UniProtKB/TrEMBL annotation:
Residues 156-172 have a biased composition (Basic and acidic residues). The chain crosses the membrane at residues 119-137. Keywords: Membrane, Transmembrane, Transmembrane helix. This is Transmembrane protein. The keyword Transmembrane helix applies. Residues 143-172 are annotated as: Disordered. The keyword Membrane applies.
Amino acid sequence: MASSLSSFPSLNHSPLHPRFLQALNAPCSVLRLKHASFPNPRIRISPLKSQRARTKTVVLSAQSGFLKVLRTAWNIGKDGIEAGTNLVPVSVPRPVARISVTTAALAVSLFVIKSFLSTAFFVLGTMGFAYFLFIALNKDEAPKQRGQDNSSGSKPMDDPLEEAKKIMDKYK
């Protein structure tokens, strides 16, 4: 059996085999790092971080999502201003073109935001006014509570069972 394995050098992993010793002495060998002893006692291998430390990292990265959105919006805005500046003729100095494109972009974006907010407040105001009119015009039809005086002339119901019996006797 030993003679059949000797023909396959990759299957012979004895510590005395020259290929094993060569792999152990390779500069980037995992085996060399695993069995290495550090001559300097200051050098230590730190253990893996605990689950709690990773959780804090996840929470911190989730909180900084808003900053990432702001940074992305800022970069998109800068790219848009650069693209708009490239549309301005070359005869206009670049700083003047950049300032004019930025002013135009701000004017357009403020107009869009103003239009959206104006529409939203108009719709909310109209709905509020309609609700106010509905309440104001239907005050008389509000449901009456039990103890209040009815303007229709009937007595308030003292006992619903007694009222039902009166109605049943009436139609006998």
